[in-house]
Amino acid sequence: MDGFVLKLRQNFSENANPPYGLQMKAYMRNQFDFFGINAPAQVQIRQGFLKAEGIPEISHLPQLIREFWEQPEREFQHFGMALTDKYSKKTDAGFIETLEWMIVTKSWWDTVDFIAANLVGAHFKRFPELIPAYTEKWMNSGNFWLQRSALLFQLKYKKQTDLGLLFGFIERLSDSREFFIRKAIGWTLREYSKTDPDVVIEFVNSHQLQPLSRKEALKVINRKSQLPDNV
User: What is the pLDDT of residue 226?
Assistant: First the structure.
């Protein structure tokens, strides 16, 4: 699939905006290079490119993902995530290994959060038997990106959220001083508060959470409580 990646590189290069790329690199704390293509433009490029080149066979996806991740420019990883999303209903159970590799390789919030909430979340819905072993492995890994993924994979589950699992993970990580864990705890509670605010209020009031986690958890609830009665 080298030709696929080379053609994509040419396409990205033709649409590059180097000054904006430097701004994006600085925003990401200089961890990644960028062509300087904003999100809407990336969508247009991706759609046009896949229409012209065709969607690769699913058997090529794991290798393609690794090739995308080998490229220094972050747009390649974003393309790889979007391409993987197209296969979300077709991958086999073993694809969790590729998803896990994506999480721990070139990790930052812009990839990990999408992978966890969209790709892993969809995969675990199709293969729920994988959840106990993999989430426990991630919780015990010492890798806060994997731990964040264990917290966030249910972000879109709403009423299907396994609260026992989620609350158990939060309790185990509530003392963490890692910003991305404290933020994820608050984020997942805040998201579930849109489904059942009373449960979230009860949990927050009965547990010792870090200030950031608590603030994030109650953000939607507090915002609604401040609305005028006629709204």
Answer: 66
Question: What's the pLDDT at 159?
Answer: 98
The answer to whether 25 touches 32, Cβ cutoff 8 Å, is yes
What is the tens place of the pLDDT at every residue in 42-74?
Answer: 999 999 999 999 999 999 999 999 999 999 999
- Are the C-beta atoms of residues 34 and 75 closer than 8 Å to each other? yes
Most distant CA pair in the chain, distance: 60
Mark residue 152 as left, alpha or beta (left: phi above 0; alpha: psi -120 to 50; beta: remaining).
alpha
Read off the pLDDT of each residue in 75-79 and give the average, rounded to a whole number: 98
| pTM of the predicted protein model | 0.94
Q: Report the phi/psi class of residue 33: left, alpha or beta, with left for phi > 0 and alpha for psi in -120 to 50.
A: beta
- pLDDT the model gives residue 225: 75
pLDDT, tens only, 90-109: 999 999 999 999 999 999 99
The 3 state secondary structure assigned to the chain is CHHHHHHHHHHHHHCCCHHHHHHHHHHCCCCCECCCCCHHHHHHHHHHHHHHHCCCCHHHHHHHHHHHHHCCEHHHHHHHHHHHHHCCCCCCHHHHHHHHHHHHCCCCHHHHHHHHHHHHHHHHHHCHHHHHHHHHHHHCCCCHHHHHHHHHCCCCCHHHCCHHHHHHHHHHHCCCCCHHHHHHHHHHHHHHHCCCHHHHHHHHHCCCCCHHHHHHHCHHHHHHHCCCCCC
CA dist 9 to 6, 16, 71, 195, Å?
5, 10, 9, 42
